[in-house]
Amino acid sequence: MKPALLINQVVQKVRAEGGRMTAQRRVILEALVAHPGHPTADEIFASVRRVDPSINLSTVYRTLRWLEENGFVAPRWFEDDHRRERFDPLTGTHTSGEHFHFRCRVCNRIIEFDEPLLAEVCAAFEQRSGARVESAALVLYGVCARCR
Ligand SMILES: [Zn+2]
Ligand SMILES: [Zn+2]
């Protein structure tokens, strides 16, 4: 899915629910989508300030929480990152949020991947334990192909 489509999706959902897509929310959403991947709130803030200097960091946080509550963004944490929260726009095949991450410890690049086997792991666990799995997170760490 193209970034513009994600933005249209958000606008449509907000309108359908009688909410408001403010200019500031739109600028923040555009900065998130334009980022090469998984920015922190500070990184989003740095790029929105260039477009609209009146936006402050708490507006960025509030907008990110609002996007999260509406299922358009997922928070991510990577352990070699001092537990800084990063934001992942849920686009294209990733709309369910069920995708996973590889983090390169040299260049810090994050590579996304799908792993259907994980659904089997969850199903097997549910059978054994009687529990119901609601979400899954998997992060692999190593050295990416470029850095090797
Ligand atoms: Zn991701
Ligand atoms: Zn790398």
Distance between the termini: 30 Å
Order of helices and strands: HHHHEEEEHE
Using the coordinates above, name the CATH class of the largest domain.
Answer: Mainly Alpha
Tally the structural domains: 2
Q: What fraction, in percent, of the residue positions are helical? A: 40-55%
What is the topology?
Layout: H1 3-16, H2 23-34, H3 41-51, H4 57-69, E1 73-77, E2 85-89, E3 100-104, E4 110-113, H5 117-129, E5 139-142
Helix pairs in contact: 1-2, 2-3, 2-4, 3-4
Structural overview:
- With 148 residues, the protein is an alpha+beta fold.
- It folds into 2 domains: 1-88, Orthogonal Bundle (Arc Repressor Mutant, subunit A), CATH 1.10.10; 98-148, Ferric-uptake regulator, C-terminal dimerisarion domain (Dna Ligase, domain 1, 2-Layer Sandwich).
- The chain is 43% helix and 16% strand.
- The chain has 5 helices and 5 strands; from the N terminus they run H-H-H-H-E-E-E-E-H-E.
- The strands form 2 sheets. Strands 4-3-5 form a 3-stranded mixed beta sheet, with no helix packed on it.
- Strand 1 and strand 2 (85-89) form a beta hairpin.
- Helix 2 packs across helix 3 (41-51) and helix 2 (23-34) crosses helix 4 (57-69).
- It is globular and about 50 Å long.
- The two termini are 30 Å apart.
- The model has no long low-confidence stretch (mean pLDDT 86).
- The protein binds zinc ion (2 copies).
- One zinc ion (ZN) binds at residues 38, 88, 99, 101, 112.
